[in-house]
Each structure stands twice: as structure tokens, then as C-alpha cells.
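Figure 2 data, in text form.
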Amino acid sequence: MKFEIEFSGHENIRSNHQKTIEITKESHLTPQGDCIVGVNAKYSCADLPEELKNKLKNPNSTVTFSINVGDDYFVIEGKGHPDLILTHNEDIVIRKSDFICPRTLAVKCDKASDLIPRSMVKQLQDPKTIGTFTIHIE
């Protein structure tokens, strides 16, 4: 199963958090949101299809995420978890840790926003940039 979420860049994107990656439906971003890689996302956790949520709640699911911006892409692998809540109305967060809250989409991810190539971050600092966050579950 594959699901794509379009988002835009923002001048305050820093992408230097060592434990998470986030996209948000919000249009405003302060420099403190250092895990956020995109704003104006078309979907949040709450908006995802039930079939996708069910697959994310399977602890045996391996989830691959990709962030595509222009010709650049960044791939992250994570895990589903039976305790995922998936009800946040604004945000999607993928985490290296096991922490679960309504914003958490996946846990035990192998990368965080600090590893996103700086060339991609530079593109994402332009509000006109459109990116795609893709969720792929085997």
C-alpha cells in the first residue's frame, strides 16, 4: 500500500532534530520547529484512510517513507505499532524512539530530520517548493 502527502516548504525549515521528522497542515512555522520538513500538508494522522491506519498498527509492518523534493529524495525505514493513536488533526511525526502520542505515525525509524541532505533542506526553505511525503507499507 502506498499513500502520498503533498506539502510545501517554509523559510524557517531547519531540519536538524536528531529523533524525529514532522510534516504539518499548519502554514506557520517558527525556527523552534526544528524537526519539521514541510507545512501546508494535505493530510494529518487523523485524515489518513482507515486501511492505512490498520496497517500502521500492525507491529510486523515495515514502513518505508520517502521525502521527494525536485530531483532529490530521502528514504526512512520505520515500524508500525499496535498502540498507535493516529488522531492528531494537524501533524504527522515519525520517530526514532518508541514514544507514541496522537501525532506519531511510526516508531523505531532509522533516520531523523538531521540526516536530510542540506541541499534538500535548502530547497525546502523556499515557500514555493512543493514536496511529497510517501508512506509505503509492505
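Caption note: The helical segments are 50-56, 118-124.
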